[in-house]
Amino acid sequence: MAVALSMGMSAVALAMNVRQCSTPATAQQGVSVKGIPAQPVDLTYAAERAVNSVVYIKVTAKGKTRTYVDPFEDFFGDFFGRGGRGGGQRQYQEPDRKGAGSGVILSADGYIVTNNHVVDEADELTVKLNDNREFKARIIGTDQNSDLALIKIEAKDLQPITIGNSDDLKIGEWVLAIGNPFSLTSTVTAGIVSAKSRTTGGNAVESSIQTDAAINPGNSGGALVNARGELVGINNMIYSQTGNYTGYGFAIPVSIMNKVVADLKEYGTVQRALLGIQGTDVTNYIDQQADKGKDVDLGTTEGIYVAEVAADGAAEEAGLQEGDVITHVDGKKVTKFGELQEILTKHRPGDKVTLSYLRKKAKREATLTLRNAQGTTKALEAIGDDDLGIAFRSLTDKEKQELGLKHGILVTAIRDGKMKDAGVEKGIIITKANDTDVDTQDDFFEAVKRANNSTDRTLWLRAKTRVGQNRSYAIDLGSGK
Hints:
Layout: E1 3-6, E2 32-33, E3 36-37, H1 43-50, E4 54-61, E5 65-69, H2 71-80, E6 89-93, E7 97-105, E8 111-114, H3 116-119, E9 124-128, E10 134-143, E11 148-153, E12 162-163, E13 174-179, E14 187-198, E15 208-211, E16 223-226, E17 230-240, E18 249-253, H4 254-266, E19 277-281, H5 282-291, E20 304-309, H6 314-317, E21 325-329, E22 332-333, H7 337-345, E23 352-359, E24 362-369, H8 385-388, E25 390-394, H9 397-403, E26 409-414, H10 418-421, E27 429-433, E28 436-437, H11 441-452, E29 458-464, E30 470-476
Parallel strand pairs: 12-17
Antiparallel strand pairs: 1-17, 2-3, 4-7, 4-9, 5-6, 7-8, 8-11, 9-10, 10-11, 13-14, 13-16, 14-15, 15-18, 16-17, 17-18, 19-20, 20-21, 21-22, 21-23, 23-24, 25-26, 26-27, 27-28, 27-29, 29-30
């Protein structure tokens, strides 16, 4: 069965100026030069204009030290009198893991967009430009829901790509995919836009551009550009039975990218606006009911069928009900759930939108104030160690052995902040955060990030004292410091 695959070859699996330009006169359709038929579109112009704005990203994930129990050591130790060598525990060092992907330069001072799955578990990032210069990079912010990440290198006078308008793309329009498949740097492939607003199930937020331009492992995070060399999408997936390109590739439209990048720069996390509904395409709903032998007449065959309205959400407040069919948002027709998601990604909590919808075939209209996952319109800030008021380190292998623990981090300092407010003290050993094992700083802050984006914004910690007493804490990430 074919599956959607993220194509970053990951080892662990802003203001941007829009400049209009026109294709040179030599690209006129149907014009021949000295008897040689011209291409329908001059794709050489687009390639030359965009290729130097696409970078190669090398990723390194440091191997971790693992501890395991050797069952034979205790047996042979007792049998031959060789006991006392650490209770059968042994350690091994995992090798470093390396991978690669692509990225697109957004600004002359070094902001670069790529896929979240390219940099997700990276310990080191190296960016190689098309002129072979290399720079160390740092992560500004990541968003798993859209599979986008913003990174930064310290450089000047780079060549940023020109941002296009993905809303203007037409099915059948020529596009180029630029990236580094199989570590072959600065590779350009051509194809057409096969479809828009696709949802493949690969990400929580999806409204993908589908293209038949060849996209392969290593292309993730690279550019999808139109015939004018303008960025219209960030390549991130293929649909394949083999793991390599078989005719279908997908890209995140720049209409989504622009908002995600702006939020990551300003807040460190994405401000996601929600309607407060669960739904599906009307065509899907009608087909599902037909499979059950039911004949459904909603008054339309296009739109979004509302299957569920969340309690205390924007839709409930505006009076929407299960069975309603959303047909327009701010006057723009929506026929697919992906189109609705793409419109919402351009908004922040607190923005107002006007919905046109049908209820029992009758036309209605409502104005909603969008909310975040916490049900508020307040901007969500990324939570860092300054907010938490904590410093910690991983346990040494000797400490783990003495305490009988497989993992944990030791709180080495505490000051005013959310952790102190919850009663956490210096010397406490945190072993779990929201039921996730914690062994490193990255483990801990990944759990914090997930909790901060959850509905209740609560971080539940399980911990032990140095003498083995159990402790638990509830950290309210939504409160002040």
